[in-house]
Amino acid sequence: MVGVMTAILVALVAPVLIASAQTPSAGERFLASPVREWTYELQVHGSLGVHFDPYFVNSVLLESSLSHGSRQNSNDGKSVKFTLRASAKPLNGEQPLELDEAAKKAFFGPVVTKASLVVVRSVDPLAENHPWNFKGLDRNGAYKPLLPFPQPILALEIRGAMDMKKDDPWILSELLAFVPADGKTAVDHLGWISTPVTAPVEVPAGAFDRAFVSRRPRGDGRNSPRHTLESWVAEGVGLVKLVALSQENKSLYTLQLIAYK
What we know:
Layout: H1 26-31, E1 37-44, E2 50-52, E3 55-56, E4 69-71, E5 80-86, E6 95-99, H2 101-107, E7 112-121, E8 153-162, E9 171-180, E10 187-189, E11 192-196, E12 201-203, E13 206-208, E14 211-218, E15 227-234, E16 238-245, E17 251-260
Antiparallel strand pairs: 1-5, 1-17, 2-4, 3-9, 5-6, 6-7, 7-8, 8-9, 10-11, 11-14, 12-13, 14-15, 15-16, 16-17
């Protein structure tokens, strides 16, 4: 079974909840969704492994082998289908999810016991090793992946609690996609790009003309190869497509929405 970005992107997404109690922005309204079940199909191209690189929300670990690596394609080129379901009412700004075993392996490298969807504002207080937090420190005390974005953005994340056999489990989070907070202005910052689509994005679940496509670098270059993640988010639905590209711009794997309700 392949395991995606831990997410892959993969991260999947939707009726996302905003992790704060402010007036919803245009971007937040764009991401709001009544959908409660998403079924995806993951296709790994060739015999390549699926890479994952989530970050720890509540741990100082950064580029750990627990959260960076690859899952080998053990399905002989066959696609894998899995479903995400809203399992309960939102709690503390997060939408609890029910993940089947295929979904757990697709999004998270380590075993997780529960998961949730959440939308994070770039201006909110974040974990010290969040991908866009310039205050994080690496093992050499110099972890600065990004300068602050020139405009507010919203990150769509899927989070999973690792079974640590204790009361305070480590929380892994995979950034699935990001959109401008105002729901319209294109983002282009140090290789992180998000723009409205110019043509409908077509997947087995349908064609969506009101959507954003985001592109960002992934992989730490040690435990998992450096690659690019492209993801499409449709208004009122959530994540509809995700493609991982190698440094040679070859497709590594594709995730597509095949049904939702």
